[in-house]
């Protein structure tokens, strides 16, 4: 009976959070100015990327450095499917676009779905060579994948327009899309984590050899996490392309992966709630701190604007946070694991 009560309470808490998130998405879209809405759009997209990246890196414990590659695949697939033939012909300068590229057309929703599916299929193909190694070697192999995608994008101008990239991509990414998909991604990832597959992923993270001895198919478990993560990273890449309306190979460098790595480590490896908080802290915090680059009046003293000062302050804040929170803001805990949501001892 007590377990049923706790389970019901957790479901009510989760449902309340979902309702609040949906309400905030609608409220922000109809109330805030364009600049603020764009920042929130960017935060929502990076929540999708961070939460999905945390599944393979934090929950499953595989040091993978591939997100920029899957994000790039998703962005290019969505861009090609949503651009019309006339727009492509107008901007392909290096080489004429392939006939099959011109023939590809899809609505935005289908384009996002195809972006995720293609990224997941690519992850499935990569999983066979990638998961033959562990640890640092796994990181090196997946790091190389991101460079390969960038080189392929540059050297196939008949598909991607080479180093010039694709422009005039239809801007579909409003808060209903980015916020709605971010909410769906968080729900889906949490359901995976708290399923039997999620428990197997955590077992692989804690001790892969012991997990194998207990009968867990570690290759299947890691592949499932890898493909699930790649699917949502591909969808996030498509949303990013539709938000920026312009993409190029230089957008998908290792810096993007490094940024996501900072986010999930800051929030807490293995915590979906931590990945969300880390995204808000990094993406929204950096935008809010832009005033540090501008001239300021501090206690009557006028200071000159110092470009890059916000990055210095942000780096100091990161150092302080990591010194006092070694496992990140949330560690491996979720929101409903906090004491305020726990049943007090002695209560029946």
Descriptive report:
The chain is built from 15 helices and two strands. With 348 residues, it is mostly helical. It is globular. The model is unreliable at 344-348 (pLDDT under 50).
Structural descriptors:
mainly alpha, two-stranded antiparallel sheet, 15 helices, 2 strands, 2% strand, globular, disordered C terminus
Radius of gyration: 22 Å
Flag low-confidence runs. Answer: 344-348
**Strand order across the largest sheet:** 1-2
- Percent helix: 55-70%
Structural class comes to mainly alpha
Strand content: under 5%
What is the molecular shape? globular
End-to-end Cα distance, whole Å, is 10 Å
**Overall mean pLDDT:** 86
SSE series:
HHHHHHHHHHHHHHEEH
Number of strands: 2
Q: Please outline the major beta sheet.
A: 2 strands, antiparallel
């Amino acid at each position: 009976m007590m377990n049923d009560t706790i389970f019901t309470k957790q479901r009510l808490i989760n449902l309340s959070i979902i309702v609040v998130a949906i309400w905030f998405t609608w409220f922000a879209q109809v109330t805030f100015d364009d600049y603020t809405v764009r920042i929130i759009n960017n935060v929502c997209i990076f929540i999708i990327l961070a939460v999905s990246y945390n599944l393979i890196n934090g929950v499953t414990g595989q040091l993978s450095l591939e997100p920029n590659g899957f994000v790039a695949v998703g962005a290019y697939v969505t861009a090609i499917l949503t651009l019309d033939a006339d727009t492509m012909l107008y901007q392909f300068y290096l080489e004429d676009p392939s006939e099959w590229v011109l023939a590809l057309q899809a609505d935005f929703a289908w384009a996002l779905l195809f972006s995720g599916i293609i990224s997941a299929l690519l992850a499935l193909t990569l999983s066979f060579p990638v998961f033959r190694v562990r640890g640092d070697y796994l990181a090196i192999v997946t790091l190389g994948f991101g460079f390969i995608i960038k080189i392929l994008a540059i050297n196939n101008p008949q598909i991607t327009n080479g180093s010039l990239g694709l422009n005039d991509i239809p801007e579909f990414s409003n808060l209903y899309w980015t916020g709605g998909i971010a909410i769906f991604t968080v729900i889906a990832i949490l359901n995976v984590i708290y399923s039997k597959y999620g428990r197997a992923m955590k077992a692989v993270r804690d001790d892969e050899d012991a997990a194998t001895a207990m009968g867990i198919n570690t290759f299947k478990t890691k592949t499932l996490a890898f493909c699930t993560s790649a699917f949502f990273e591909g969808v996030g890449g498509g949303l990013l392309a539709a938000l920026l309306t312009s993409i190029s190979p230089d957008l998908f460098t290792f810096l993007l992966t490094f940024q996501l790595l900072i986010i999930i480590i800051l929030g807490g490896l293995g915590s979906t709630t931590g990945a969300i908080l880390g995204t808000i802290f990094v993406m929204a915090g950096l935008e809010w701190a832009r005033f540090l680059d501008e001239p300021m009046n501090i206690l009557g003293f006028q200071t000159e604007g110092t470009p890059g000062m916000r990055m210095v302050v942000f780096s100091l804040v990161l150092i302080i946070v990591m010194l006092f929170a070694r496992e990140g803001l949330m560690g491996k805990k979720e929101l409903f694991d906090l004491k305020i949501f726990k049943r007090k001892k002695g209560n029946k």
